[in-house]
Specification:
It is a single chain. The chain is built from four helices and four strands; from the N terminus they run βαβαβαβα. The chain is α/β, with parallel strands linked by helices and 165 residues long. It has a four-stranded parallel beta sheet with strand order 2-1-3-4, sandwiched between helices. Helix 1 links the parallel strand 1 and strand 2. Helix 2 runs parallel beside helix 3. The protein is globular and about 50 Å long.
Length: 165
């Protein structure tokens, strides 16, 4: 038996998001699963609020319980598979971490929560992936990544009492 609601996954092309997306078919109808990812079949960038909002609003099923699994995130590595040091990272890489990890999460949360509250008797469950590095620093090479994950953790803590989220 399949769940009637929808599942929206961000970062579903790699890592934890991919594992969730790849196994979603066991619980959800394929037409009710949305992968918000720049590498997905139908690419959607979490940094583009208008695209995110349109996709989420067309996926949330009124009157059902809908699910969001937000796992989009990025960190950059050297050719030797080391995390790029702060001083060696380009401003574009640092900006991308802030825009994808933090602002992208805000875009998805804002759209999903708004879409759920638009319809009476529609409910939602949210899982947002942060990182242990939001509590323990990974050192100077992880400074921006750590900051984005700490910001995500702070937002989620404050959203918990908000309108029964």
């Amino acid at each position: 038996m399949k769940i009637d609601g929808s599942l929206i996954v961000t970062g579903g092309s790699s890592g934890i998001g991919k594992a969730v997306h790849d196994n979603a078919g066991q619980l959800f109808r394929p037409e009710n699963v949305l992968n918000i990812d720049v590498r997905a079949t139908m690419p959607i960038d979490v940094r583009d609020f208008a695209s995110v909002d349109a996709a989420i609003k067309s996926t949330v099923i009124p009157g059902q319980r809908n699910y969001l699994f937000s796992a989009a995130g990025v960190v950059f590595f050297t050719k030797e598979d080391h995390v790029v040091d702060f001083i060696d990272a380009s401003i574009e890489q640092l900006r991308a971490m802030v825009e994808i990890n933090f602002l992208g999460t805000i875009n998805v949360l804002k759209s999903f929560i708004s879409a759920v509250y638009e319809h009476e008797e529609t409910t939602g469950n949210i899982v947002v992936v942060s990182s242990i590095s939001s509590f323990f620093s990974g050192g100077p090479n992880m400074v921006v990544y750590d900051a984005t994950k700490a910001a995500i953790s702070a937002i989620c803590k404050r959203l918990v009492p908000y309108r029964n989220i």
